[in-house]
Write a structure and sequence with these properties.
Number of helices: 9
Number of strands: 10
Order of helices and strands: EEEHEEHEHHHHEHEHEEH
Distance between the termini: 19 Å
Keywords: ATP-binding, Nucleotide-binding, Phosphate transport, Transport
Pfam families: ABC_tran
Radius of gyration: 18 Å
Helix content: 25-40%
Number of domains: 1
CATH class: Alpha Beta
InterPro entries: AAA+_ATPase, ABC_transporter-like_ATP-bd, ABC_transporter-like_CS, P-loop_NTPase, PstB-like
CATH superfamily: P-loop containing nucleotide triphosphate hydrolases
Structural class: alpha/beta
Strand content: 25-35%
Oligomer: single chain
Protein name: YbbL ABC transporter ATP-binding protein
GO molecular function: ATP binding; ATP hydrolysis activity; phosphate transmembrane transporter activity
Strand order of the largest sheet: 6-7-8-3-9-10
Largest sheet: 6 strands, mixed
């Protein structure tokens, strides 16, 4: 199913995938998917396990390379953007929080430090406060719960001030109560910052709560896309 082009100048495209295809030996992961995401939009990706949801998401900030096709960020072919700058502009939060050894504060400051920028303690404290971890800066990451670690992961991503946020099942590894807390946190941050967001989720209920639009991927193909309530009407 092809995405209908967006020509509304009031809502320019933040992200666009054009006939994106990726194959590895013996398997097609994404099969000519075309999608447009307007600035400030929240798009959910749902579908069966193994359908290619996460594979497609990883192509959007070039963690994996398309075999063919084009991904554009703010209208620019992302191959013309250095990977370091691209992944700052298009931040990603994984299913599991892969934190670096050390303190919470060191993790939050990591991205800016890679660019030679020292993140002030006040900024670190503000980010941690926003994700509900006030006074956690000096804690060792080995002493965090799963929910706390995911909050640090979110703060670390926000420290780079991304334009676009990619979320790969960010709550699926958490218990139900913690998952809802993280979901609410993410939803509030997206709205506060007017961020563009693409979220992979195994939960249609979560897609309804979070996303204005939803796409369904089946066997690597775009099966359906549109307003969330319409796409998931029969589910």
């Amino acid at each position: 199913m092809a995405e209908v082009p967006c020509n509304n100048a009031e809502h320019p495209l933040a992200l666009e995938a054009v006939n994106v295809y990726r194959a590895v030996p013996g398997k097609i992961l994404t099969d000519n998917i075309s999608v447009q995401v307007k600035k400030g939009d929240v798009l959910a990706i749902v579908g069966p396990s193994g359908s290619g949801k996460s594979s497609f998401l990883r192509l959007l900030n070039r963690l994996d390379e398309p075999t063919r096709g084009v991904v554009k960020v703010d209208g620019e072919d992302y191959r013309s953007i250095s990977p370091e700058i691209l992944r700052r502009r298009v931040g990603m939060v994984m299913q599991s929080a892969y934190l670096f050894p050390g303190t919470v504060g060191e993790n939050v400051a990591f991205g800016p430090a890679q660019r030679g920028k020292s993140l002030p303690d006040t900024r670190i404290d503000a980010l941690l406060e926003r994700v509900g971890l006030s006074e956690y800066g000096d804690r060792d990451v080995d002493n965090l719960s799963g929910g706390e670690a995911q909050r640090v992961s979110i703060a670390r991503t926000l420290a780079n001030e991304p334009e676009i946020l990619l979320l790969d099942e960010p709550t699926s590894a958490l218990d139900e109560s913690t998952a809802l807390e993280i979901e609410t946190l993410v939803r509030d941050i997206i709205r506060e910052r007017h961020m563009t967001c693409v979220i992979v989720t195994h939960s249609n209920a979560q897609a309804r709560r979070v996303a204005s639009r939803t796409m369904i991927i089946e066997s690597g193909k775009l099966a359906k896309i549109g307003p969330t309530d319409e796409v998931l009407r029969d589910d």
